[in-house]
Write a structure and sequence with these properties.
The chain has about 230 residues and is an alpha/beta fold. It has 7 helices and 7 strands; from the N terminus they run βαβαβαβαβαβααβ. The protein starts with a strand and ends in a 9-residue tail after the last strand. Bound molecules: NADP nicotinamide-adenine-dinucleotide phosphate.
Length: about 230
Amino acid sequence: MKNKVCIITGAGGGIGSAIAEALFGLGYKLVLMGRNEEKIKKTAKDRDCLILAGDICDDEYVRSVVAKTVETYGSIDLVINNAGVAQSQEFCDITMEEYDKIMNTNVRAPFLLCKEALPYLEKTGCGTVINIASVTAHKGYALQSVYAASKHALLGFTKALSKEYYKRGVRAHVISPGGVFTDMVKISRPDLSSEGMILAEDIAETVLYLLKMRNCACVADEIELHRETKEPFM
Ligand SMILES: NC(=O)c1ccc[n+]([C@@H]2O[C@H](COP(=O)([O-])OP(=O)(O)OC[C@H]3O[C@@H](n4cnc5c(N)ncnc54)[C@H](OP(=O)(O)O)[C@@H]3O)[C@@H](O)[C@H]2O)c1
């Protein structure tokens, strides 16, 4: 996997930062995205990579990241759509501006990034997309209506994308975790304690597992992960 090129969104902390750390370890050339440049620099730790800060809801930013990646590294092997926003709000209190923000970040932006990167992923002959959804891609939790809608949508478009492109050499996977101990869960589920939580590094290990499987005949379309304190197959 040395010198393969990966674009990762939301690389400035939490799950994105842990995935970046794991991929640096494998020798990937990384393109780190996020709004906060200082946070992305902390992930990069002065290692050789592209730091491209911006808002993924801005189409021109997303397009420019793909263009800059190809200009700098010549190809794209892996796209990880990790950036996301959560909510904790009563259904009737959600404004349509908040609805748009969550849907644009969690669905529209990954959709556009995949769309822009796919010609390059296809060209490598073994491109990979990994989209970070959530258990809410399958279940509805109170106070998370838009978040659940967005993660159902992310799962849905990834399913269609993987069917459309698998014969063309591109695999698209989804990782759907339960509570991971990051800033997001501290804000969206303040009722949860840190005990028994999934770690960001566990998600990074799952990404590595999917990549190791890339050259064998067995494919995991979606990997669901739950906290050890939750019952299995919920
Ligand atoms: N934590 C959980 O329990 C959990 C469970 C299941 C799924 N997930 C999913 O895992 C992914 C990562 O979440 P996390 O837990 O690591 O949360 P996090 O620490 O809050 O990270 C979210 C990341 O998304 C980026 N982001 C948000 N809006 C953006 C925008 N408009 N433009 C560019 N970047 C934006 C943030 O970048 P900046 O900091 O630079 O703004 C941040 O790095 C999300 O998709 C989330 O839905 C999380």
